[in-house]
Amino acid sequence: MSWDGLKVLVTGGASFIGSHLVERLVERGATVRVVDDLSSGKLAYIQPLIDSRAIEFVHGTLLEQSIARAAVKDVHTVFHLAADHGGRGYVDLHQVACGTNLALDGLVFWEAERAGVERIVFASSGCIYPVDIQSDVNESIYLSENMAGPPYNADRMYGWAKLMAELQLRELARERGLKTASCRYFTVYGERGKEDHAIIAMIARAFIRQDPFEIWGDGTQIRNWTYVGDIVEGTIATAEHISDGSAINLGTTERTSVRQAAELAIAFARDRFGNYDPELRFLPDMPTGPLNRVADNSLAEDLLGWRPKVMLVAGITKTAEWYFDTHKDSEVAATLTESLTER
């Protein structure tokens, strides 16, 4: 599939993941329109592309029908990343806000079909998987696509909204012939990430040399953090290979505890600053989410030829280098508590 000259819409294209996707699509020759309300994204991430007229930028919310209708006009492919979302603290504490994704997704899909868009690729989440099968940290479970349900038991309102969007896209493909696909992202991190997500939060704590170093939960929770560059490549590959409404996991199979990830961030700070060996303070009453969430990515490898290239040690190093070089410790210290749970 050639992207050269193809008209593409990226919703949420000024966001952490979205801005990386926009850059990659421009590199491949696509003609890109970005719509973003800048509630969590930053215009600075895509400003050079706007200034060079490499992309078209529309500032507005896709919850407004007029914005959604204009956004999809004359577009071939929609990458739908816009959402009210955040890290674990946000999705646990802001259920109503996350529920607005039900309306946003439905409106984008409706207007896209109405406008004759050929393809929709949706940014879904590992949060769609049943929480009851992710409760034992000692079990070596890998979530494969067929484990989503039924029966369904998604993770909080955010997970349910993502699941409903997936099911809608699957039916749009089956009933209407629209080419659709869903990418289930697993705990994405990397440059431009925000402190409301775990890896950036850990890097931020290490950056300000927090002592005691706070860890939500007891530190045994298992995740598979996935580097943003790999996520973007998988998202584009999904657009190129999947059209029947199927959902596909994009995540590593590395099983890493929260404590292990925190220790990697601390080690980076120690190498940078010297003499940093903080006490670890575990906070079991803070939001933790499912205790054992790791992807099976074999379907992505089979169908897309995709596998993650950046493993966690290298990825945290790259991300921490960016964070340490672009932030001021006094500003991070002043805002960190709020940043952990807000967009």
Describe the protein's architecture and organization.
It is a single chain. This protein has twelve helices and 13 strands. With 343 residues, the chain is of the alpha/beta class. The strands form four sheets. A seven-stranded parallel β-sheet has the order 3-2-1-4-5-6-11, sandwiched between helices. A two-stranded parallel ribbon has the order 7-10. Strands 8-13 form a two-stranded parallel sheet. α6 (156-176) links the parallel β5 and β6 (179-185). α1 (16-27) crosses α8, α7 packs across α11 (312-326) and α9 (258-273) crosses α11 (312-326). It is globular and about 60 Å long. The mean pLDDT is 97.
SSE layout:
Layout: E1 7-11, H1 16-27, E2 31-36, H2 47-51, E3 55-59, H3 65-71, E4 77-80, H4 88-93, H5 95-115, E5 119-125, H6 156-176, E6 179-185, E7 188-189, H7 198-207, E8 213-216, E9 222-223, E10 226-227, H8 228-241, E11 244-250, E12 256-257, H9 258-273, E13 280-283, H10 298-304, H11 312-326, H12 329-339
Parallel strand pairs: 1-2, 1-4, 2-3, 4-5, 5-6, 6-11, 7-10, 8-13
Antiparallel strand pairs: 9-12
One letter per element, helices H and strands E, the order comes to: EHEHEHEHHEHEEHEEEHEEHEHHH
Q: How far from one another are the termini? A: 35 Å
Number of helices: 12
Low-confidence stretches: none
From the spread of the alpha carbons, the general shape counts as: globular
Assign a percent range to the helix content: 40-55%
What's the multimeric state? single chain
Gyration radius from CA atoms, angstroms = 19 Å
The averaged pLDDT comes out at 97
Describe the biggest sheet? Answer: 7 strands, parallel
For the secondary structure, the number of strands is: 13
Strand order of the largest sheet: 3-2-1-4-5-6-11
Secondary structure class reads: alpha/beta
- Estimate the strand proportion: 15-25%
